[in-house]
């Protein structure tokens, strides 16, 4: 008889696997099944949560429009309508104009005051000492993030408008909403006194240069003088002996008067220092830029679009670690830009912050912004060409120049401070307080509200990195809503405690424009939806939610329901520029 082949041989001929191979295949298949089941389970959980969120959203939907109209039509004939609240707005800059518009929208009567003869604040070109604008100035925030949403800027404008264009824009804004009739120009308010008995405010005002004062009773006060009231200028040993000219960038109007001179610009600022240094470099004999610490030089354009446009849509609020992606994208774009142009800023003498200083920020975007300055054109190129020379911190002044901490000395004809403005809430244009206790020094809760006195607010006293206009408009909406009685503030004790903490640590009054707008939305009770609610909104209100996710983080359309209609970017006036 022929002997039967072994089992393993027969299994091989039959295409079967040996037991060890079969076991490995089963384990592999089981692992694949586990991964599949986990993915299917996660997908099922996501669908379940979406359905639950959608049901919750359906239950909380607004009543029909007919019900709203019928409720609004019910008028109590026994109780007469309350008189319109009178609000005084002090200041005719962007924050003042935004407050006027928001207060009118709430149905209040507005009386406004402006020291100068024109509305527009710092953006009005004034060649004399009253002005704060230089001829080559352009915005360092792109126009979509800068504009007031109810009044879009012209599409024909460049992404970064000039100060001439912004002045025209504000003039058109005033004309379109008929705000000029509200203002008493060439008038200064000297004091705002709170009357405990009546619960109102007494304003004392006078014409600029006049002695006689008048008074007026109002229900509320919105102080809108901004932060660019009093320039900050440091002092150094021997400064009084310097025979050259010393001035602030607020006094700078152009390079003409500095032709052929040696000029030192002190400080990079948020943008003014690098702006002025580059402007001077096309006419001055030599320009020097003194920076005490390292600075991150952020070009206005990165990757072909404005630097703030990276990850600036609401969608990125729902992406974990999106801020890390933004920092990486900006860093890569900056390195690519430097590599293929003039080389790195560090190589050309523009020192960045040390590694330890960077690590101390814990990569917090607001703290990193303290080290960042926006480059108006190409500072690295001007430094590489020798038109601008970098210097360190100043040690002292001498008769003919400045000696620096590295021991070097430089003869100079002029020194220009690019050191910003005082931000201690003491730059108010008038005295504020209870009757007989008025003073100019003031603590503020959230840099907006008086911590103890009712119906007094300041607009744009905080210092945002990014769009000041967006923050001013958001705060104006908050102020108008509170004055109208539709939103309440926290208790006085809580406001006073928080205001005292900010007064002790002034760095807390700086913020990112995106975080400040989001904070105002939360204070209004209009915080952006969380992940769970967003799932339901995508099902119940897909179009509105899509518009909400697509709009800018600084948009003042805070909720999904406010995005019922698409944003209309049609310009409402004819530009001449």
Derived structural class: alpha/beta
Rg from alpha-carbon coordinates: 30 Å
Shape category: globular
Q: Looking across the biggest beta sheet, what order are the strands in? A: 3-2-1-7-21
Report, as a whole number of angstroms, the end-to-end distance: 108 Å
Strand coverage percent: 15-25%
Question: What distinguishing features does this structure have?
Answer:
5-stranded parallel β-sheet, single chain, 23 strands, alpha/beta, 16 helices, 577 residues
Descriptive overview:
- The chain is α/β, with parallel strands linked by helices and 577 residues long.
- It has 16 helices and 23 strands.
- It has a five-stranded parallel β-sheet, covered by helices on one side.
- Strand 9, helix 7 and strand 10 form a beta-alpha-beta unit.
- Helix 2 crosses helix 15.
- It is globular and about 90 Å long.
- The termini are far apart.
- About 4% of the residues have low confidence.
What are the SSEs and their pairings?
Blueprint: H1 7-13, H2 19-59, H3 65-73, E1 86-90, H4 94-105, E2 109-113, H5 143-146, H6 163-176, E3 183-184, E4 187-195, E5 200-207, E6 214-218, E7 220-223, E8 245-248, E9 262-266, H7 272-280, E10 286-290, E11 296-299, E12 301-302, E13 305-306, H8 322-339, H9 355-360, H10 365-369, E14 372-375, H11 379-384, E15 388-391, E16 394-397, E17 401-404, E18 409-411, E19 414-417, E20 431-434, E21 456-458, E22 463-465, H12 468-483, H13 492-504, E23 510-512, H14 513-523, H15 531-540, H16 542-550
Parallel strand pairs: 1-2, 1-7, 2-3, 4-20, 7-21, 8-19, 9-10, 9-19, 10-15, 11-14, 22-23
Antiparallel strand pairs: 4-5, 5-6, 12-13, 16-17, 17-18
